[in-house]
Amino acid sequence: MSVRALWIISHEKGENVSIRFSRRFPTVEHRAKCLAGSLYVPVPEESTVLQLLLTELGLADADKPYVVLRDDCLHHQRSPALELHVEGKGVLWPVLAISEGPLILACLPLVEGPAEPRPPLASLLSVSQGLTLLAGLQTFLLGSGSKPDSEGLASRLAMLPSVLLQVCPLGTPLDVPQLGAPAASLVSTPAGTQKQPAWKTGLHRGRAVVNVALTEMVRSMQYGNQSRQDLWDVYGTVTCKCEVEGVLPNVMVSLTLPPNGSPLQDILVHPCVTSLDSSILTASSVDDCDGSAFSGPYKFPFSPPLEPFRLCSYTSQVPVPPILGSYQLKEEENQLRVSVTLKLHESVRNSFEYCEAHLPFYNRDQMGGVDVKVSSGQLEVSKEKNLLVWVLGQKFPKSREVTMDGKISFSGSIPGPTDPLCTDLTAYIKLYFKVPDITLSGCCVDQHSVQVYSSAKPRITTSRELQSKEYFIWNATGAAPVSSGHMML
């Protein structure tokens, strides 16, 4: 739900009616224009909105006994959603308005869908959320009573731009001001002359915490055939969550590699990074990797947004994949003979959060008899899905090698699942695993290297992990795709 426009109107008796505050959100208005197409009705000028809204609420032309837009019997007020008839343009709907004491608060929510036919109010989440936003702002402006002193109201109105940055950034309501909280405790004006950037929706108040998480995804296509080259690559991301006081706090995160580690390549950074060594950005996976390549440490100074964000991403060339596999599938008298060997490379820590191997069998009848043994872990059989799930658990045996061997018959009367690629002996194993506190490239974030330039000393936490992503081992005795385009992102 988003808001196209918001108005705060003063209509106290004995004073001129006026718009005390208004805010429009151009990005939301652009979405409204795209959704409505030829039926789009733009938000008119403030003076026009004020006149139409007062007329609709019955607060204008009180001395006139009959006003068409107010009193015509064909006009039905749709509470709480009002219609504003803009001359020559069309109808603005639904305009939400609440009146309390000296103020009228109104907003125009975005209707997510075509303008015609008009959707029923009960189906519009934006109506209830818009009313919640107005009620929260009403309590913030008026405090515990319905008629605050003029100075208190003026002070709260002056704070509305900062309040909306927090509760309704870019026109999307996320929260409402805390009910009954004093105005001064909700928003503090940025210290000094630093201007708060538009992309930062608020200021953090409270304990400083910086969390840095490094995740590497490894992808692999293994064929078990000397005529085809196995493929694998590593893609890493660094995600940060920085809760640090200040308008533009400065933080620096450094990535380090082991002495024999391959340099990081294809590095992309978040726009909040303030400066970067040019040698970090020039390394590309298509270039020849030589001894002159930059090998760190990779320093990223930045001024963080409030929400979690991806600080950077990279690729890395590693000599071997973490798990090497061999898969052989053969037809034997209306049965399939299955033989699998998986070996964990010695450089990878033998401590998984989880590790599973999935063996699907497509374009066949439903599984019948399954006589398959595994040297380690547990085997789960799903005959409805023609799927074997080999749960390897959290550790490989001391030898770092596991095997599967046996026979499968397909004697069911119901066809199993189909796949246009995997026909006859074209089949694969797909591995799913996660290894905590390790990366395949050796890249890490040293907790002591994270620098935060802030008045408060933050609590800093770092983590890293290795995960599988599109990790396939193809049947060596059948056809298999030569490139990774079909299975890998």
UniProtKB/TrEMBL annotation:
<dbReference type="InterPro" id="IPR036168">
    <property type="entry name" value="AP2_Mu_C_sf"/>
</dbReference>
<dbReference type="InterPro" id="IPR039591">
    <property type="entry name" value="AP5M1"/>
</dbReference>
<keyword id="KW-0458">Lysosome</keyword>
<dbReference type="GO" id="GO:0016197">
    <property type="term" value="P:endosomal transport"/>
</dbReference>
<keyword id="KW-0963">Cytoplasm</keyword>
<keyword id="KW-0653">Protein transport</keyword>
<feature type="domain" description="MHD">
    <location>
        <begin position="207"/>
        <end position="474"/>
    </location>
</feature>
<dbReference type="GO" id="GO:0030119">
    <property type="term" value="C:AP-type membrane coat adaptor complex"/>
</dbReference>
<comment type="similarity">
    <text>Belongs to the adaptor complexes medium subunit family.</text>
</comment>
<dbReference type="Pfam" id="PF00928">
    <property type="entry name" value="Adap_comp_sub"/>
</dbReference>
<dbReference type="GO" id="GO:0005765">
    <property type="term" value="C:lysosomal membrane"/>
</dbReference>
<dbReference type="GO" id="GO:0005829">
    <property type="term" value="C:cytosol"/>
</dbReference>
<dbReference type="GO" id="GO:0015031">
    <property type="term" value="P:protein transport"/>
</dbReference>
<keyword id="KW-0472">Membrane</keyword>
<protein>
    <recommendedName>
        <fullName>AP-5 complex subunit mu-1</fullName>
    </recommendedName>
</protein>
<dbReference type="InterPro" id="IPR028565">
    <property type="entry name" value="MHD"/>
</dbReference>
<keyword id="KW-0967">Endosome</keyword>
<dbReference type="GO" id="GO:0031902">
    <property type="term" value="C:late endosome membrane"/>
</dbReference>
<keyword id="KW-0813">Transport</keyword>
<comment type="subunit">
    <text>Probably part of the adaptor protein complex 5 (AP-5) a tetramer composed of AP5B1, AP5M1, AP5S1 and AP5Z1.</text>
</comment>
